[in-house]
Amino acid sequence: MAPHEIRRPFKRRPISDQQKRRELSLLRQTQHRSDAQQRARNLASSVISLQSSSPDVDPEILSEAVPDLDEGTESESSNFDVRQASRLRGPEARKWFAKQLMLPEWMIDVPDNLCQDWYVLARPAGKRCFVVSSDGTTVSRVRNGSILHHFPSALPGGARKKGASGPANSYSILDCIFHESDQTYYVIDMVCWRGYSLYECTAEFRFFWMQSKLAETGACDPPSFYHKFRFSAVPFYNCDQSGLHSAYTGSLPYVKDGLLFYNKHAHYHTGNTPLVLIWKDESCSQYVIDTDNNGEVPHQQHIVLELQEEGKLVTSDDPPVPFSCLNADFVKQSGLSSGSLIRFAIGDGGLKCVDGRFEKADLQYISVSNRARAFADSYSKIMFQYMARHSPLKVEDLASTISHENQQDKPPEVEMSD
Fold first, then answer.
1. What is the pTM of this model?
2. Are strands 196-197 and 102-106 parallel, antiparallel or unpaired?
3. How many Å apart are CA 14 and CA 21, to the nearest integer?
4. pLDDT at site 162
5. Cβ-proximal residues to 360 (8 Å cutoff; 6+ apart), any chain
6. Mean pLDDT for all residues in the chain
7. Which residue has the higher pLDDT, 185 or 293?
8. I want to staple 145 with a disulfide (CB 3.0 to 4.6 A). Which of 97, 121, 193, 356 is the partner?
9. Cα–Cα–Cα angle for 176, 46, 190, rounded to 5 degrees
10. Cα distances (Å, whole numbers) of residue 152 to 40, 114, 233
11. What share of the chain is helix, strand, coil (3-state, %, to 5)?
12. What are the two backbone dihedrals, phi and then psi, of residue 20, each rounded to the nearest 5 degrees?
């Protein structure tokens, strides 16, 4: 893809209301002001203090009652403190920790104003995790809540050493991807810095702080006795032709796993959000189409849905998208219950959308999903995977949208008469 190639405008029949939800998300964040400082404090406490728990091993919940996380809202999640989180095990712990991350939707249509309102960055391959530094230690936890590393770092409050500056009770929270081959934490977002919450700051501001503050601390320096792992801020670009070209084809010190697109005005919204998108093709990711347990691409697309009351099968979205329904006899004979995660194959009938809304799917039952899994698939992931098999959204489509937007932004030429 040439960086300044001009193409015809990209058009695709609508298969979702993703653009409408983007607009609603931007509107909602201006109307809703939560206690961001308390939310950051709770998350930092949970990551640091729950070192004895092993939520990925123990499938049981302690007998003491805990809130229903499936029905929790963002504000409820922010009030869910470390004492409650410490009682969670198995799927409930995985769900709680996963919901603290901002999770991208899969790009199934090209956003409006892509060139002006969005950043693009090359996502590093590796384990997504929170990194929290506080009170002389640093802890990283992956999406299921289990500890990845417990180590000293050059982050504020991240190591017990003489001459450390800053208040003793300060903490920092980074959203990272750990890249195994070079043992580096690549920082894709900053949630809190020295106790200052960035939940309700725009991505534009968070990314500026991420680049400047990390460099100030020495966290990007090579490993040492008080700094076990190197940190590196992932480079981001304005999503114009040059930026898209750099993220897609540019040389980087890590293995790429797709492209991430951030709306510049987006706050750090926990859970799935249409204001952050992920897109992949074979040139920038080894994992475009999902594989089975043997690492092979199955002949049919596999999806995981959640069983709800009255046999409804839904996605993990909020609100969930209903896909189909199982009859009561089959549910009973198969030993299924509400909340079960079930794997299906999409048959030859495929998926059908009408006027941007999902209508029906040809589903074939396979089995109950692995117990280690916490969530059903999202609607955007199912549709992206389906498109990748049949009619993929290509990088040329993104480039043509940017070119079209640039042409529209140019002032009209005015002819001067003699």
1. 0.82
2. unpaired
3. 13
4. 67
5. 324, 351, 352
6. 82
7. 185
8. 97
9. 30
10. 21, 40, 19
11. 25, 30, 45
12. -65, -40
Q: Which residues contact 354 (CB under 8 A, 6 or more apart)?
A: none
Specify the DSSP class assigned to residue 296.
Answer: P
Owner of token pair 């959640």: 306
- Token pair of 157, please? 């409050």
142 to each of 47, 149, 177, 216, 292, how far by Cα in Å?
A: 10, 9, 9, 26, 22
Q: What are the tokens at 409?
A: 């932004």
Closest CA to 237 of 128, 108, 126, 122: 122
Res 236 pLDDT > 50: yes
**CA–CA distance, 328 with 336 (Å, rounded to integer):** 10
Residue 351, CA atoms < 13 Å, CB-side half-sphere? 26
Note the residue count of the chain.
Answer: 418
Contact criterion met (CB below 8 Å) for 211 and 220: no
Estimate the crossing angle of helix 241-249 against helix 395-409, to 10 degrees.
160
Which residues contact residue 410 at a Cβ distance below 8 angstroms, ignoring those fewer than 6 apart? none
Which distant-in-sequence residues (6+ apart) come within 8 Å of 272 by Cβ? 103, 104, 105, 316, 317, 318, 378
Tokens of 329: 């006899």
> What amino acid occupies position 117?
D
d(CA 341, CA 370) in angstroms, rounded, equals 8
Residue pair 156/133 in contact by the 8 Å Cβ criterion: yes
CB 256 within 8 A of CB 181: no
Would you state the structure tokens that stand for residue 366, as one six-digit string?
């396979």
For 75-98, write each residue's pLDDT tens digit.
Answer: 333 444 444 554 566 667 666 777
Contact 318, 271 (CB under 8 A): yes
What is the bridge-based pairing of β-strands 102-106 and 230-233?
A: unpaired
For residue range 105-143, what is the model confidence (pLDDT) as tens digits? 999 999 999 999 999 999 999 999 999 998 899 999 888
- Alpha carbon of 108 to those of 168, 230, 242: distances in Å? 46, 34, 22
Question: Token pair of 400, please?
Answer: 């043509």
Mean pLDDT of 181-205: 95
Whole-number pLDDT of residue 14: 54
Q: Indicate the helix (H) or strand (E) that contains 190.
A: strand 184-193
CA angle 214, 219, 42 (to 5 degrees): 70
Question: Positive or negative, the Cα torsion across 390, 393, 397, 399?
Answer: negative
Q: Which residues pair with 354 in a beta bridge?
A: 357
Q: Which helix (H) or strand (E) holds 197?
A: strand 196-197
